[in-house]
Design brief:
499 residues; mainly alpha; two-stranded antiparallel ribbon; 2 strands; globular
């Protein structure tokens, strides 16, 4: 088994960030190199996932040959490898979109691609982290690069960047306090070692304190209510490649941490943690659905819908059964693909509108000359609403089946209503942009961002809806890893032993 596969998805874009910075004066080459590195990161993540799938064993790599739990550990099982591959796929599509983008926030910023690669490295590293402090370091990479990319967008970008930075600061502080509390109580931050020590001595008072702050971190990173207010402003201000990444895969970091740490040592199977996650999930579904219905801005609409979709994942995590956890994994994969595609389509249309605005008043009737883009948006909207045979239906069907089996009928009624609202606001957006006459305003600009990247993502949405069995099997295996983390939780070798 090649342990180096566990570090390549992190190392390739991180090294590429420095390489592309040296190419700041040759922008076309810089974009091509960045795209190549993102594709290489995707291939390494896919190879890692295949290795784990075929062998049935996790892949672990110790930095510097320091034995666990003393060194920096990269650890991948089906859950973490699935999320790393998902991040690689979406970032590769984002790199393709950014390479051909005509947005000044992309073309005029020599640091765009280095920061974009750093953002990808931080997320992959967080998904593959085997200890909490390394998770904190990767989180800071995400925050710094994400805030800088948003601030460089101009206009309202600096204000949105400040909101994103400070809510991320609160989340990061929660993780740092959790690290300190766990270390004070158990003397380790290695996830596997920590889980074993908590199981042996669960009565430590600081364990509950650490768990509370870890929950604050996770909810802050996935924009759970009440940490959600930065999302709409951020997506209205940030450049399209950046907003597409943060609304699709970056918010999955909080979901992943709840899945991973819930299986290892957070008491999410019952008690107050389960109730809090369920309440936040239901609130997110309600706030996100109603906010999307009420907004008159395409990107803000999609930002609010992210709150609702993440709320579905939190509900599944709170229920905690095997079927519900598998549903959370499928929902995370499907939402990342479709949301990044829809935001790229909205951004490409906004780039053709007067003033480059994504407000519906500016986009009204603009799509008459771009029917293919309308077809892509409609397919993406159907996937977001969970209409068969699109991929969004699969995750919601798993969630509803799990909830019905546990007689969660009141929550299921709310989720069904939210699904109906998502169909309403996506079809309304399609009607306003592609069906409504343009009126007296100017028409669409003949040139704009390419639809190639969102077309690939929408094709993936269709494929995962029609041929859903591989994803279902993968999610089933990931859920089993969450509920029975014995393979990941193994006694570390003695100090000085072989890593």
């Amino acid at each position: 088994m090649n342990g180096h596969l566990a570090i390549l998805p992190f190392l390739l874009p991180l090294a590429g960030s420095g390489v592309t910075l040296l190419l700041a004066r040759r922008r076309a080459l810089q974009g091509a190199v960045a795209l190549g590195l993102l594709l290489a990161g995707l291939l390494s993540s896919a190879a890692l996932l295949r290795e784990i799938w075929e062998t049935g064993r996790p892949v672990v790599f110790q930095m510097g040959a320091w034995p666990a739990p003393h060194g920096i550990t990269f650890a991948a099982d089906l859950l973490s490898a699935t999320f790393a591959t998902l991040a690689g796929a979406v970032f590769a599509a984002g790199g393709l979109y950014a390479w051909g983008s005509r947005d000044d926030a992309v073309r005029a910023q020599p640091a765009f691609f280095p920061l974009f690669l750093m953002l990808a490295a931080g997320l992959s590293g967080a998904f593959l982290s085997g200890d909490l402090f390394h998770l904190f370091v990767c989180t800071e990479l995400i925050v710094i690069s994400g805030a800088a990319l948003t601030a460089a967008s101009g206009g309202a970008g600096p204000e949105a960047a400040f909101k994103y930075f400070y809510i991320s600061l609160v989340a990061g502080l929660g993780l740092l306090i959790a690290c300190g509390a766990f270390y004070a109580a158990y003397g380790t931050l290695n996830l596997a070692d920590l889980a074993a020590r908590i199981a042996a001595r669960p009565e430590q008072p600081l364990a509950a304190v650490a768990a509370v702050f870890l929950l604050v971190y996770a909810l802050g990173k996935c924009a759970g209510v009440p940490f959600h207010f930065w999302q709409p402003d951020f997506h209205a201000a940030a450049s399209t490649p950046v907003s597409a990444m943060l609304s699709s895969v970056i918010v999955k970091l909080g979901v992943y941490v709840l899945l991973r740490c819930g299986g290892l040592f957070l008491p999410l199977a019952g008690g107050p943690f389960r109730a809090v996650v369920l309440a936040v999930g239901v609130a997110g579904v309600a706030v996100g659905s109603l906010g999307a219905i009420g907004t008159r801005h395409a990107k803000r609409m999609l930002a609010y819908s992210t709150l609702a979709q993440v709320g579905l994942m939190l509900v599944a995590i709170a229920w905690g059964s095997h079927g519900a956890l598998a549903a959370a994994v499928v929902l995370a994969v499907n939402h990342a693909l479709v949301k990044s595609a829809l935001l790229m389509i909205a951004g490409a249309m906004a780039g053709r509108a007067p003033g480059h605005s994504a407000a519906f008043d500016a986009l009204r009737g603009l799509g008459a000359a771009l029917p293919a883009a309308g077809a892509l948006f409609l397919l993406g909207g159907l996937a977001l609403a969970g209409v068969p045979p699109m991929n969004g239906f699969i995750g919601k069907w798993l969630l509803f089946r799990s909830g019905a089996g546990e007689e969660r009928f009141l929550v299921l009624a709310l989720l069904a209503a939210a699904g109906g609202l998502s169909l309403v606001y996506t079809v309304r957006a399609y009607q306003l942009v592609w069906w409504t006459p343009r009126g007296g305003g100017s028409g669409a600009s003949p040139a704009g961002d390419s639809f190639a990247a969102p077309a690939l993502l929408v094709a993936a949405c269709v494929a995962l809806g029609v041929f859903a069995e591989p994803l279902l099997r993968l999610a089933d295996g990931a859920a089993a890893d969450i509920l029975r983390p014995d393979a990941l939780v193994r006694p570390p070798p003695p100090p000085g032993g072989a890593p």
